[in-house]
Fold this sequence. Notes:
Elements: E1 5-11, H1 13-19, E2 23-28, H2 34-44, E3 56-59, E4 62-63, E5 75-79
Parallel strand pairs: 1-5
Antiparallel strand pairs: 1-2, 3-4, 3-5
Amino acid sequence: MSAPLRVTVLYFAILRERLGVERETLDLSAGADVRAARAAIAARHPDIAPLLPRVATAVNRAIAAEAHPLADGDELALIPPVAGGSWKRG
């Protein structure tokens, strides 16, 4: 049986504001993927759970699908959609 794994979760924008933390560690079962990590985060932080379907996930600074397997020591970043700003033509 494989050992559990630990990942660092980074929160950005509204997620960071709502939680009041920039990062935390998350312990997951061996063989966990991004989907399992997102489910664990939703269970730990039900106040941000409704936002998670619109949030991109990066593993080690690369956008990752939900089926992407995680390894011990990975960095998981939750990145809400970005809006705002303006662009002038001319």
